[in-house]
Structures are given as C-alpha cells and as structure tokens.
C-alpha cells in the first residue's frame, strides 16, 4: 500500500489508495451519516487498511479547517460544526503513520496541478461547485494554504446584490447563491417540485422555466465570483469541478456570459474557465499528494 487517502465531503466519505503516479483506487464510499461521522470514517479506514502497514494517510475535507490543530468544522456536517480533531483521531488509529491534512480545495488544486487541467500553467484557481463551493489557489506552481489552511475558499466571496443567508453566518456568499442545495431551495421557493441538484439540472436541460432560471442565477453568481478572484490573483485559468458543475449548458452559458461582463480589465483577456479532468477523484488524488505540498508542483 502506498498512501491511504480519506475524502470527507459534505455528503459523502470516500477512502482510496493513491500511487505515486496519481492513480487512485477508490475502495470505499458511503453517505455522510447524520450521527457517528468519525465512527463511519474509522470503519472505512480500517476496512481498507486491513492488516497492511500504512506509512502515510492523506486527508482532504470540506471546511473550514484549522490546519495548525488538525481539526475541521465543516459547515454541512452539523455533528462537527463546532470542530473535530481529525488528525489526532487518525493518529490514534494509526500511530505509526504520517498524517497529512488539508481542506478539499487545496487537495483539488494539487490534483489538477499535477495530473489535471492545470498541469500546463503555474498560476490557476481550481474550484468545486457541489453541495458547497470551495477552491484552491496555485501561484508560481505552488498551492497556497494560508495560516489557518483555508486559502482559496472562493465559496465565501460575496456576489453583488445578494443578501441570501449563508451557513457561514454571513450573507451574499456565492455558496449561498450558486451551490446545488442553494439553487434547489431557490427553485422550490418558486414552485419547482424536485429535490436534488441533479433533478434541477436535468429539468433545466429539458427546458423547465424555473429550473433554467435557478441555473442561470447560479451561473451569473459564479461568473462574478470567478472574475473577482481572477483579478485579485492575476490568473488566466480556472478549473471547475464538482457534481453541480456538471449541469451543462444551462449553468455554463450564463457563467461565461457573466465572465464576459465582469472580467474586462486587460490582464484578464486570456482568462479561461474549463471543466475538471479529474471530477470526483480529485480530492482523493490531492490527499495522496499532500506530501508534495511544501515543494513546487
């Protein structure tokens, strides 16, 4: 076994084995339970490890995180919203292992930089649009981490005109407007009867008026947030992954139109937004690459 990788998302927990070439074998995946989240992680890790020695464990997780203490407080996992010491817990489980830990956006950026759509450029933003919105920043070939470990968390850029309440406690965050669950809630408030982001995307693709409006609203907000981040960071590539980002033309067209309206300053003339090449494998791959975090990608 090379590296054991743990991906803790807002809705799923996955464990995989990651080789030095970035190839990932996902061995276990479950939905995040309403209670007993650590017990579920522990069961998955132990079942995958078996009797093998585990030298390195990489953890990628929804945030926010507190990297110095090795703890996380995911906004979408209520049981852990006040903090859970994931690194000490994993160390207790595997005392001889080296445990590496980062927010999922950092893992995403590492994966895309080494093996995905950002491997040809030293400066990029990688982001995920799913149950939440997160991201990671690549500058000069290095992935930024930040003093708490939350650098690149684009989901909490505020978009113009929105006062939608966000789970973080603020208002107007792009996550509160453009994530899958946020878009579903907005559509339901206007009479749409579906329940999931996948249904919303499918209905939009089939011409449902409310579903199309929900995805257009999300796309415009994403374009606003991306153009703001690109201007701040002076980047020319944004890689977008995540389940809700696969909604297709009803989301991507308004996002590109919004970019065209807002990313107008000269140094952004070559800005490109492309889909992730790694999709739902990205966080696992990036967790396996955390040993490379201190060196240029």
Automatic annotation (TrEMBL):
EC code(s) of this entry: 2.7.1.2
One GO MF term on file is:
glucokinase activity
Pfam families associated with the record: ROK
Report the superkingdom from the record.
Answer: Bacteria
Keywords on this record?
Transferase
Report the SUPFAM superfamilies cross-referenced here.
Answer: Actin-like ATPase domain (SSF53067)
UniProt lists the family membership as follows:
Belongs to the ROK (NagC/XylR) family.
Its recorded name reads Glucokinase
């Amino acid at each position: 076994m090379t590296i054991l990788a743990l991906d803790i998302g807002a809705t799923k927990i996955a464990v995989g084995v990651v080789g030095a070439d970035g190839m990932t074998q996902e061995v276990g995946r479950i939905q995040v339970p309403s209670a007993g989240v650590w017990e579920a992680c522990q069961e998955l890790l132990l079942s995958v490890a078996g009797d093998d020695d585990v030298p390195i464990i990489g953890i990628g997780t929804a945030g926010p995180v507190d990297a110095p203490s090795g703890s996380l407080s995911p906004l979408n996992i209520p049981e852990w919203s006040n903090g859970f010491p994931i690194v000490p817990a994993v160390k207790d489980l595997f005392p001889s292992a080296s445990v590496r830990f980062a927010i999922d956006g950092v893992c995403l950026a590492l994966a895309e930089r080494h093996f995905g759509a950002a491997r040809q450029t030293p400066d990029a933003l990688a982001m995920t649009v799913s149950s939440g919105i997160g991201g990671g920043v690549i500058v000069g070939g290095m992935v930024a981490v930040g003093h708490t470990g939350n650098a690149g968390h684009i989901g909490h850029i505020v978009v113009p005109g929105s006062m939608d309440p966000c789970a973080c406690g603020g208002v107007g965050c792009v996550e509160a407007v453009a994530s899958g669950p946020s878009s579903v809630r907005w559509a339901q408030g206007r009479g749409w009867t579906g329940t999931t982001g996948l249904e919303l995307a499918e209905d939009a693709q089939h011409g449902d008026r409310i579903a199309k409006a929900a995805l257009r609203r999300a796309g415009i907000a994403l374009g606003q947030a991306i153009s703001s981040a690109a201007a701040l960071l002076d980047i020319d590539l944004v890689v977008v992954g995540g389940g809700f980002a696969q909604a297709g033309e009803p989301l991507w067209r308004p996002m590109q139109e919004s970019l065209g309206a807002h990313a107008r300053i000269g140094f952004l003339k070559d800005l490109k937004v492309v889909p992730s090449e790694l999709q739902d494998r990205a966080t696992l791959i990036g967790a396996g690459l955390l040993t490379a975090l201190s060196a240029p990608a």
